[in-house]
Write a structure and sequence with these properties.
With 256 residues, this protein is α/β, with parallel strands linked by helices. It has a single domain, classed as Rossmann fold (3-Layer(aba) Sandwich). Strands 2-1-3-4-11-10-9-6-7 form a 9-stranded mixed beta sheet, sandwiched between helices. Strands 5-8 form a two-stranded antiparallel ribbon. The radius of gyration is 17 Å and the shape is globular.
């Protein structure tokens, strides 16, 4: 969603969401809340917003934490950009930008994140991760594109064109689901597209015959995966979408 949307106020239904979000592990304003130590790799989920804030963030956090418990990786969460230092990031194999929006990192934090990726680590962008850091060209290269508007939430058919990846290998050729379908600009040329939107199955697409909605690529020594799904809370309760996320996270973590 664009950054000029109105913020949720306490007299609206979204206030309950904010209350729930504040009570979730790691969702307060403090430092990252680690889960109990384990033997698997660690992933940091970052969900700071400087513009529109998606109500699906809370469900996304819960889904990622459950995936971590089920598949042997630790999930820490934070809304604090202060977590982006070389020392703090050194404990993680991948960072997830969960519907971040706007300018979320300062120059020093950006440098620390660039070093993290160049050290061979991974990145996962979910939904509004492309609506983030428009003045940081390096980030555009990492996430793969910038947000360029969307129509209303509606059902569409996703055409899965590449099944040689853990995020897409199990998906049907025609994946029908409901979400907020982004249009993009500044698409990077080195992306390996996993799935396209079939614009004949919904209204409001602007790309024509080739409308990427999920992709991955190697980037400056690291790995990056992006999926455009995840606007609705219901997305994170869909087993195929959760498996799609799992494959993206496992790719970002890399070989163990």
């Amino acid at each position: 969603m664009p950054a000029n949307q109105k913020l949720i106020t306490p007299n609206k239904p979204g206030f309950l969401f904010l209350l729930i979000l504040a009570l979730l592990p790691g969702c307060g304003s403090g430092p990252p809340e680690p889960e109990p130590p384990g033997t698997g790799p660690a992933v940091l989920v970052f969900y700071k917003t400087a513009g529109f804030r998606h109500q699906s963030i809370a469900e996304g956090i819960l889904a990622l934490q459950q995936l971590g418990r089920d598949h042997g990786f630790r999930v820490d969460t934070t809304v604090r950009a202060e977590s982006f230092t070389s020392e703090k990031l050194s404990g993680y194999k991948a960072v997830v930008f969960l519907s971040t929006t706007g300018d979320v990192l300062n120059p020093a934090q950006q440098t620390a994140f660039e070093q993290f990726i160049r050290a061979g680590n991974g990145f996962v962008g979910i939904h509004a991760a492309t609506d983030t850091e428009y003045d940081w060209p390096w980030y555009n290269g990492l996430v793969g594109a910038y947000f360029n508007g969307h129509p209303a939430v509606q059902q569409a058919t996703v055409r899965v064109i590449n099944k040689a990846h853990p995020a897409s290998s199990f998906l049907p050729d025609a994946w029908v689901r409901t979400d907020e379908w982004y249009n993009f600009r500044n698409l990077q040329p080195d992306l390996t597209v996993l799935a396209n939107l079939d614009e004949s199955t919904y209204s409001g697409g602007t790309h024509g015959a080739s409308h990427p909605i999920a992709w991955f690529h190697s980037y400056q020594g690291g790995r990056a995966f992006y999926t455009g799904g995840g606007h609705t809370p219901e997305s994170f309760r869909e087993p195929p979408f959760r498996q799609h996320l799992l494959g993206g996270v496992q790719y970002a973590i890399g070989p163990q």
